[in-house]
Amino acid sequence: MKEYYVTVMSIDPDDHHGREQGDDHQKYGLTVMATDEKDAKKKGIEKFEDDYPRLPIHWIKVSC
User: What is the pTM for the complete model shown?
Assistant: First the structure.
């Protein structure tokens, strides 16, 4: 197992000004323990959905 850093692009539900301007995007950073990048992506998605169940995922980046 290795520690991976997962960046998730979603929205900021409290950024009403950004939404009015057309850009309410927010990056969320998560740390997961995984066997490889594919496993880290899967675990990152699961963790993000547990932490922020109502937010959409636009893209995900995994790094170690």
Answer: 0.84
C-alpha span between 43 and 33 (Å, rounded):
8
Boundaries of domain holding 59: 2-63
| CATH code, domain with 26 | 3.10.20
Residue 53's CB: how many other CB atoms inside 10 A? 7
pLDDT in tens, 4-62: 999 999 988 877 777 777 777 899 999 999 999 999 999 999 999 999 999 999 999 99
The backbone torsions φ and ψ at residue 22, rounded to the nearest 5 degrees and listed phi first, read 95, 10
Judge contact between 44 and 30, C-beta under 8 A: yes
The conformational region for residue 22 under phi > 0 = left, psi -120 to 50 = alpha, else beta, is left
